[in-house]
Amino acid sequence: MRGRRMAAAGVAVAALTGATVSGAPASAGTAHRYGVPAVAGAARGDGVPAAAGDRGLERFLEQEITWHRCRTGPDDAAGKELDEAKARCAEVTVPLDYGRPDGRTVTVAVSRLKAADSGRRRGTLLYNPGGPGVPAMSLVLQVKRAAPAVAARYDLIGMDPRFVGRSTPLNCRWPTGVVGSAGPDRRTFERSAAVARDLASRCAAHRDVLPHISTRNTARDMDVIRAALGEQRISYLGSSYGTYLGAVYLQLFPRRADRVVLDSVLDPARYGPGLTRTQGPALNALLRDWAAWTAARHGRYGLGATTAEVLATVNRINRAAGRAPLRVGRHRVDSRLLPMALFHITAGDSPQVYAGFAADVRVLREAARGRAVTPTPTLEAVLEGLSAPDDGTAAVQTAIMCADRAASRDPRVHYRDIRAHRADEPLFGPLTRNLTPCSFWPVSPAEPPTEVRNDVPLLMVGATGDPGAVYRGQLAAHRALTGSRMVTLRGAFRHTVYGGLFSPRDACIDRFVDRYLVGGVLPAADASCPGGPSSGGGSTR
Questions:
Q1: Active centre residues (catalytic)
Q2: What confidence category does residue 18 fall into, taking pLDDT thresholds of 50, 70 and 90?
Q3: Which residue range(s) make up the domain with 525?
C-alpha cells in the first residue's frame, strides 16, 4: 500500500511541477490513409501540410519494428521484470515535427506483452497512466496483474512518450523539479515566481525542440505505432492526463480507435498549465473527509476529536511553516514545500491511505511545535523527491503543458487569483493556483489547443470526489464526447478508479470496464456504482 500511495502521488503531483482545427476532405495518398482530415489550402487536421505528409510519412507508418530484450544492464530491474514476463521492447522512429517529416527524427520506446490467450486475441491495447510524461513501458505488467481477462485478449503496449524515459531524452538540468506553493504573502509568491522563471530559462537551449513536445504529437506518435504494428485500429486505456491524450487521439484519428476507456477524465477544454486551478473545492472535500475519518479515531491519532479540530491542526502546521521552515528529520519544509508534501493525500481514500496520511500529519504537527521528529517512510520519500534535482522528467512534463496551451505571462494574474481564494483554500490554493514555468516559457505553442468534440463510442469511469480530475470537468468531457457512456463511483475521493492501479479498487467499476474491453458491451445508458466501506468514504465509517 505504501508503494501504491507513492505511485499515485507521483501521477497526481506531476501536473504541479510548474505544471479548433476545421477540416476539408482529405487528399488522396498517405494523408487519406492516415485517417485525418485536412485544413483547406493549408494543412491536414493534424497540422501536417498535405504535400509534405504524403511524401514523408510513409517511411514511418510502414517501418518494421525490431523487438529485443528489455533489460539494458545489470541494474535495470524494470527491464528484468519485463523480460521475465516474456515482454519485448523496441524503439519506433517518428518525426520531431510532423509538419516536416523529412527532417529530424526522434525515437519512442515501447514494450509489448502479447495476449496470454493467443487463440482468442482480439487486438492491441495501448496504456497511458497519465502525468503528463510518465514512462509506461513497465506498467503493462501492472495492467496484466490488475486485469488478467483483458491481458488474455489483448497485446498490451506500454509507451514512454517522446522525450520521456527510454525515448529520445531531453534534460534542462533543473536544480529542482518543483516550483511549489506561492506561500502566505507577496514575498513568498515572488520567490516562487523567481524559481519558475529560472527553470524556464534553463530550457531555452532546447527552443528548437520544445514546441514539438505536445500532446498532439504524442497522439500522432501513437498512430505511427499503431500503423507499424500492422493494426487497422487500436484500443486504448488512459487515466488522468492519459484521458486527455486519448481524447486528442480520438479527435485526430477517430477511425483508428477500437475500444477506448478513459479513467478519471480531464476537461479537454481546460487542459494546460492552469488546469490545477479547478482542484480547490475537490481537495477541500477530500481533506474534510480524511479529517472526519481521523476525528472518529482521535484516541489513536490525537489530531482532534472533531472534523473542525483536525482541520485546525493542519492549518496550524501550515501557518507554522509560513513563519519558519519545519525541521523534519534532515529536511527543511517551508511554505513552498509543505503543500507539496501534503498533496499525496490524493493517493486515495482507503483506511490504509488515510491512516498513513494521519501518521504523516502527526509528524508535521510535532515539527511545527519545534520538536525533533523522524519522518515516516512515505513522508521521507516525498520530501526526498521534492529536494532532489530533476532528472529531466519534471522539465518534460512541464514542456508538454506549455506546448499544449499558452499560460498567462502576467504574474499579477496568478497572485490576484491566489489572494481571492486564501480564505476558502488556505492550504492547497497557493499551490494549485500558483504560476508555472509556462508563464516564462522561451517559446510559444506551435499549434492551437485541440477542440475535442466527436461521437466515437467509448467508456468513461470516474469518482464524484476526484481531487485531480474534478467531477465537473468529467461531465464537461462527457458532453463533448457525445458517443461516450459514463460510469460514476459515487461518494469516493480518489483519482483513478479502475483496477486498483493507482488508488483503491472498486469491483463495480472493474466489472463495467472488463465487460467493455473483453466483451465489447457498453452500458445502454450512463450508470453509477455505490461508494461504501470498500470504496473509501472515510467520514461514513
A1: 240, 466, 495
A2: very low
A3: 458-540
